[in-house]
Design brief:
about 40% strand, about 120 residues, about 25% helix, 7 strands, alpha+beta
């Protein structure tokens, strides 16, 4: 998840609870932003690049989506401090299934339409 100008899809700021599932149990993180293709999770110790992860994103009090993603970008704590950015990792969505994919796209579209600045970028593309 590189600079804003080179992204295929613009990001929208959204604060979701995301639960990563692994052999050690579950860990909850917050999103910083999201797009049709992925999310950026705020976390002090990002996972390694290209790690495949399973997670649940809570869209509302009574709706969660189960997804699979690939760690595509990381910002470790020291780089984050130097760059004055939050530490975390960009997760590229991967093989989420047709229904989940459509619901995620609908959710992100709703977020774009609530944000005039991001909506203008989306409509210009």
């Amino acid at each position: 998840m590189s600079s804003h100008r080179s992204r295929r899809q613009p990001r929208v700021n959204v604060n979701l609870d995301v639960t990563l599932q692994n052999a050690q149990g579950e860990t909850v993180f917050k999103t910083k932003n999201a797009s049709y293709d992925g999310v950026f999770l705020l976390c002090p110790k990002p996972l390694p690049l290209r790690k495949l992860i399973r997670f649940r994103a809570r869209l509302s009090e009574d709706e969660e989506l189960q997804m699979i993603g690939l760690v595509a970008h990381t910002i470790n704590a020291s780089d984050a401090a130097e760059q004055k950015r939050p530490a975390g990792m960009g997760i590229q969505l991967f093989s989420v299934g047709q229904e989940t994919h459509q619901r995620w796209r609908d959710f992100i579209s709703e977020q774009y339409h609530q944000n005039p600045e991001t909506r203008a970028v989306v409509e210009a593309n």
